[in-house]
Design a protein that fits this description.
The protein is α+β, with helices and mostly antiparallel strands. About 40% of the residues lie in helices and about 15% in strands. It has a four-stranded antiparallel sheet. The mean pLDDT is about 80.
Amino acid sequence: MPIRSPRGRAAAYRGVWQWPLQSPARLVITVIVVVVVAGGVSFGVTSLAGRSNERGLLTGPEPSNPASSAPRLPGSPAVPLTPAPTALPPVPELEPKNLPLSQAPAAALSVAARWSAAWVRPPSGTTTDEWLDGLRSTTTDEYLGVLSGVDPANIPATRVTGEPRAVRVSPRSVQVAVPTDALTLLVLVVDTDTEGWRVAGYDRT
């Protein structure tokens, strides 16, 4: 017979939750039942979630292809969007490092000849300053300072014995061989910006 009065329902509920408290054995049985039921519920939820993932229900949307989503005019073929190649600027042709010896400027050869004639050992009693004055018009200011440490009395050559001859020609410099009575000078003549061709160094062979 169903319980219809509130007092009857309350008495029934009270009997249910007081049942485990009536003895230790009932309490243990109740705890075991609760643990088993909770474990079963948890296992069931986990199994459902795993099956949903396998079916792809929880995975995110696949990434879209930018090329396929790009707008195009009706009737035009689908063309993948690729970056346009970058065009490099044209590279100017480089001047050759060495030129033919025949292209040696006559002015450079003339400067080398005059400088060599002034470089050879001067007459006895000539001071270093007087010797430098003879080189000043054909020598760069920087190299003139280097020559200021030279004692002209120790120069072995006394005269130039032949014509200047270009041995290396570049766009802005010429190396000139000048023979003397003791050695051959290799004179480096450079094209300066303001003073024309000037001697910037020498070697000897």
